[in-house]
Each structure stands twice: as structure tokens, then as C-alpha cells.
Design brief:
Length: 464
């Protein structure tokens, strides 16, 4: 489904001032590897969180069968392989098929999925997903009744779906969504319904306002310039409106905000400040050439250039960063093992976590095959990590060659939680602690470390 992103972006970027990573100047393509100074994600107990997991979706079924492709097995298998996070795709067109009429059946289906996530201790962000705006253009997302095109043309591109974003009717529909007051209110009400229903669900950690938002290019405007304008002038006000709507129902959940997909070309976002105390910057991590089927080119400096660009916003506005989607279509090319190692190291330097695309059982982007075995190189996403740290992290790193993960932290001296949760990708790992702390296994693939207040603790996980 994502492969044609490459052709559309490559064509649109030809006149642009920002080029693919292989064409970036050396100063941009070989950024440093210092850890980001952005804040970390925390839970309601104040523990430092690391989210690692997958998108879970059902884009095919609607109505009575909506979300039926997501089952309890999804969360059981994810947790068994060490993942603690899911980005759950939901669709406004299913939630509100007619203006003001919200489907209680759909809300119950979402709740069933969240209950499964809770059962396996998987944290969930609810993503209001759209592809090419929605059903008016043959996809999913914003309802047809909220789609306004001013009679502009639309031509389907069945072999190149992402290029449909550049059809005049689709671009105008985004403009109306952002600027028409009645549609602004409708979007805010939709989010009030979701937040009101799920604000107290134990699995829910936050809300992703809109997937991969796009917009309308002006005559003579190149794509990076258009992206920065759309992000500044249309997405920033939208995120502030929706954050206010969510806050009227949920004071604790995180609000995830995305830039346009142009961020994948190492173009810093034009988003402005979202005036909320619990905002997460949630870009996606896709490479144009790799989406078109090319192998990873380590010499291009793309991973480093992306890291340099994507860390600017969270460091400027002091918000955590969680990558909402990433992962190439073809994982078996010769350099893809190197890509996953480079990507995992980079993500570990600057993010509070990520959701790969996508947890399903089969081919294409699926994480695992029909029998639940990791597909080629996807196993490299399964590393030991600290899901929740009850204290201040001093260092946290995994050496894939040695098979050693080491976490050092200072246990909080203040009253509060003392349990640090460590995720293990399988049973083939040993864990030891140094300092005033004890460790015990907590079910398959997990360990809990309990420290005395103010202790310096080092946790070492070693592959057997």
C-alpha cells in the first residue's frame, strides 16, 4: 500500500530546495549521533517510558465486520516477542457515517480491541487514520459527508495510490477540512466522542489526531515550501483545536501530532507550538528510494539526515518524539540487515519509541508470516529495552553484536513507584542487576527491577 509514496514524492521534489538524502550536502548527510535533548515520554506515575511496537489495522472491513482482522492473537503474539505498544487505526467514516450519528457498535469494537491490549499489557495510541482523505476517493478516513471538492477533478491511480494526494479534488478537500468552521467543529466533536469513551481505559496512552496530513499546493510552490506552510498555517491551528477538544474529556492522555510525510525527505517541519502540556511529535520514517523498491544505501546518509531534521521540533518545543510508522516493504534485499541496525540505533538516540508498519500475518509490510515467525530482518526490531524506568535514566544502550543491553538509572528518592519494567524479546536472555535493587521475572519475556530510593542501579541483559 505504501510503495507508490516514492514515485509521488520523488516527482514532487524535483523542483524543491530539499533533495533525497543521497543528494544532501555532507554537513546534513553526516550529522552527529548525540542523544536528543528533547523530553522523554512518561506514564501517569512519572516513569520514563519507551514504546516499541506495531501498527494494528483493518482497512478492509467496515460496518458490522469493522476491525475484525484484529484479534486477541495480535496482542498476545506482539507481547510474546517483547513489544509493548500498538498504534490502533480507527476511521472517522466508520465512527460517524452520518453527521452527528456516532456508531455505538464501532465504539464497542474499538473497546474490544483495547480490552485485548490491556490483557497483554500493551499501551495503545488511537490513530484517526486517513489515506487519500477518505471514501469519496476510494479509501478510508474522513467521511464523504465531510468531503468538499468544489467540483474539482479527481482521477484514480490504482497502481500509484499515493499520487492521488496530488489530485485537485483531494487537495481542496484538505483545505476545506482545515478551514471550514463547521468541519472544524465536526472534527473536534468526533475527537470528544473518542476521548470521552476511552479516556479511562487502562490501555490508552494517547490520541494521534490525523494520519499523514496533506494539503493543497499553490501555483508555483514547491513541495517542501508547501509542506512547511500547510504545517504552520493549517495543521498547527487544527492540532490546537483538537487538543482542546480532547482535553475537555481527557486530562491525562498524550496528544500525538504529525507533520506532513515530506519529513521523510529530511525536511524539518514547519509546525508551530501546540499549546498543551502533553504533546508528542509523531513523524513517520520512510525513505523515498526504498519505498520504490531500492536497497538501503548506507553511504547516502539518509538515516543521519532524517535524524538531524526530525529532532529539531521536539528540541525546540520541548516535547517527546515517537515515530508512528516505519519499515520498508522489501526487507530481504542485501543491505536491509544493515538498515535495521542503523535505524534501530538512530531511533534509540532520539525517540521515546516507535510503531513499525504493520503487525499482520503474511507478506508485504507484515511483521510476521502466517505461522507468526518474523519475516526476513524484522527480527532485528526485537531488542531488550526498558519499557518503564522508575527514576532518572543515565544511559541505555543495546549492542547487537555482543547481544548485551545495559541500563543505568538513579532510582527516585521521592515517594512513588519503584518498579522498573524491562522487556526481553524471548526467553533466551539472562538479566542481572548491580546496586540496591532486586530483579524478578514477570511472565514470558519480561522482568521487573525494584530499587531502594536514590540508588544507582545498572541492569544488564545478555543473550545466552
Amino acid at each position: 500500500m505504501r510503495v507508490t509514496l516514492a514515485a509521488a514524492l520523488a516527482a514532487a521534489l524535483l523542483p524543491a530546495s530539499a533533495l533525497p538524502a543521497s543528494a544532501l550536502p555532507a554537513s546534513a548527510a553526516h550529522a552527529g549521533t548525540a542523544r536528543s535533548t528533547a523530553p522523554v515520554l512518561t506514564d501517569v506515575q512519572g516513569r520514563t517510558l519507551t514504546l516499541r511496537g506495531w501498527n494494528v489495522e483493518d482497512k478492509v472491513h467496515r460496518g458490522d465486520t469493522a476491525l475484525s482482522a484484529i484479534t486477541e492473537q495480535t496482542f498476545r503474539d506482539m507481547r510474546a516477542k517483547g513489544f509493548d505498544f500498538a498504534r490502533l487505526l480507527v476511521f472517522w467514516d466508520d465512527l460517524e457515517p452520518r453527521p452527528g450519528r456516532y456508531s455505538q457498535g464501532y465504539l464497542r469494537k474499538i473497546e474490544r480491541v483495547l480490552d485485548w491490549a490491556e490483557r497483554y499489557d500493551v499501551r495503545v495510541v488511537i490513530d484517526a487514520h486517513q489515506d487519500v482523505f477518505g471514501p469519496a476517493f476510494g479509501h478510508r478516513g474522513i467521511p464523504e459527508w465531510a468531503t468538499r471538492t468544489d467540483g474539482l477533478p479527481f482521477e484514480p491511480h490504482p497502481d500509484d495510490w499515493f499520487s492521488e494526494y496530488y489530485e485537485p479534488a483531494v487537495q481542496r478537500a484538505f483545505t476545506h477540512l482545515y478551514e471550514d468552521e463547521d468541519l472544524q467543529r465536526a472534527q473536534a466533536r468526533m475527537w470528544k466522542v473518542l476521548a470521552g469513551r476511552f479516556s479511562h481505559h487502562p490501555a490508552v496512552i494517547g490520541y494521534d489526531v490525523i494520519n499523514e496530513p496533506m494539503g493543497e499546493l499553490r501555483p508555483g510552490e514547491d513541495l517542501p515550501s508547501a509542506a512547511r506552510r500547510i504545517e504552520r498555517d493549517q495543521l498547527t491551528p487544527m492540532y490546537n483545536r483538537v487538543a482542546d477538544a480532547i482535553r475537555s474529556e481527557d486530562r491525562a492522555g498524550w496528544v500525538f501530532v504529525e507533520p506532513t510525510p515530506i519529513v521523510g525527505e529530511a525536511v524539518p517541519t514547519g509546525l508551530g507550538r501546540v499549546d498543551d502540556k502533553k504533546v508528542v511529535y509523531a513523524p513517520h520514517f520512510y525513505n523515498t528510494a526504498m519505498e520504490a523498491g531500492a536497497d538501503y544505501d548506507p553511504s547516502s546518509g539518509w538515516v543521519e539526515a532524517y535524524e538531524q531534521a526530525v529532532t529539531r521540533y521536539p528540541e525546540q518545543y520541548k516535547v517527546p518524539l515517537v515515530v508512528g510508522e516505519w519499515g520498508p516493504l522489501n526487507n530481504s534485499l542485501p543491505n536491509m540487515g544493515r538498515f535495521y541496525r542503523d535505524a534501530m540505533a538512530s531511533l534509540g538516540r532520539y525517540s521515546s519509541g516507535w510503531a513499525g508498519y504493520v503487525w499482520c500475518y503474511g507478506g508485504g509490510y507484515c511483521a510476521v508470516d502466517q505461522d507468526g515467525t518474523f519475516r526476513t530482518n524484522k527480527d532485528l526490531t526485537a531488542e531488550p529495552y526498558a519499557e518503564a524506568v522508575a527514576g532518572t535514566v543515565r544511559s541505555s544502550a543495546y549492542d547487537p553484536d555482543a547481544g548485551v543491553y545495559r541500563l543505568t538509572y538513579d532510582s527516585s528518592a521521592r515517594p512513588g513507584p519503584r518498579t522498573t519494567e524491562v522487556s526481553l524479546p524471548s526467553e533466551g536472555w539472562s538479566i542481572t542487576v548491580r546496586g540496591k535493587a532486586t530483579v524478578r521475572r514477570h511472565g514470558p519475556g519480561r522482568a521487573w527491577v525494584t530499587a531502594t530510593p536514590g540508588a544507582r542501579v545498572t541492569v544488564t541483559v545478555t543473550r545466552r
